[in-house]
Design brief:
The structure is a homodimer of 186-residue chains.
Chain A lengths: L5 H20 L5 H8 L3 H7 L3 H24 L4 H18 L1 H8 L6 H23 L12 H15 L3 H19 L2
Helix pairs in contact in A: 1-2, 1-4, 2-3, 4-5, 4-6, 4-7, 5-6, 5-7, 5-8, 5-9, 8-9
The structure holds a DNA duplex (30 and 30 nucleotides).
DNA sequence: ACAGATACGGATGAGCTATCCGCTTCATCG
DNA sequence: CGATGAAGCGGATAGCTCATCCGTATCTGT
């Protein structure tokens, strides 16, 4: 395993930076766009990221890591229901803030192992928080572990369908999640 | 206004039939595909349907009409909450059954006036049912009229994210809607 | 400074969208 | 029924994006 060459590392940074900018602008990622805006050849971009999904997952990785951290903090909480609902709120807010994360969350088959691992961690944390809330009797028993992610994706999707501008999104998402949580509580 | 020519009518039927087949197969609609499978030239397809969206909306129209009919039946019901929840159930079940309907529902800007009109009717019915349920005190007051469609889209999206096979979808969708309705009820 | 490995860049082809226009088919009218 | 104009058909084609491939340039270790 040879360490990466200097120019390669520099270009990797440029590409991911530009990609993050494009995602934040709401533009659907196009690798040709990325190449042009990064001042690189298309081939370079495709060598670093064989598909759009690979780049998208890379761009979403820091967000997934942050969510994992938040989840681990939530696990330290005493009140099971509060910890659970706080974590779900963070998940939803992250998704409606970041289109890259929203897409990656909704996709079942990842292309990067790192993505799979981070998602696994987040799901595990959610499951644990759900189990505790259930044990405390504050959540309805018919909600399965595998439902958490789809429901969060559903809420952020509903928010996208509802909202004209990104600024409208956070309050809408909170309102929808609030309603859902009310439905989940026992 | 000249009545349509016979061959034109025949081709319109062929195109919409093939398009419905493709949609049911889960294939994303491509007008070239449609032309080939219908045994027609590409130009013919594009003359009848200038864009993919136009064809998609046309294919979804019968479903929208059926939903309108169901809604008008629900309006005849006595129990406000039952009428409301029944209608929402029909909306969600239709969406998870028909990808064309799901896409059309989630799109704000229609290309066919007919689509806009049908959606308007459905939203009006939903609003009326919601108002009645609110008046009867069985629904939380912070749910706005404009939230109904996004929430239904969100549920069907969550269902798509969750389910591997189409067969899994209906029960999942019912479960999610059930949870949401519980959150909506006062 | 040299050699080999690694990475770069853009020309290139494949696939899809959408258009345009010469030709065919249809409906009408004498 | 046959001619005529209108309406419709079909596919060649241009524009666009995705993705690949390979000759060339750059870097790293000696």
């Amino acid at each position: 395993m040879t360490p990466q060459r200097k120019d390669a590392a520099r270009n990797w940074d440029r590409i991911t930076t530009v990609a993050r900018e494009l995602v934040d602008e709401g533009t659907p990622l196009q690798l040709n766009d990325v190449a042009r805006r990064a001042g690189l050849g298309v081939g370079t971009v495709y060598r670093h990221f064989p598909t759009t999904e690979a780049l998208l997952e890379t761009v979403a990785t820091p967000c997934l890591e942050a969510l994992g951290d938040h989840g681990r903090q939530a696990l330290a909480h005493d009140d099971a229901w509060h910890a659970f609902s706080t974590f779900l709120t963070q998940l939803v807010e992250a998704q409606v803030t970041d289109p890259a994360l929203a897409k990656v969350s909704a996709t079942a088959t990842d292309v990067l192992p790192r993505t799979t691992e981070l998602k696994r961690q987040i799901i595990a944390i959610g499951t644990e928080l759900l189990t505790r809330a259930r044990a405390a009797g504050t959540v309805r028993p018919d909600l399965a572990d595998g439902d958490l992610v789809p429901l969060m994706c559903g809420i952020s999707y509903a928010t996208y369908v509802h909202s004209e501008t990104p600024a409208d999104r956070l309050p809408t998402a909170r309102r929808y999640l609030d309603t859902l949580l009310r439905g989940l509580s026992a």
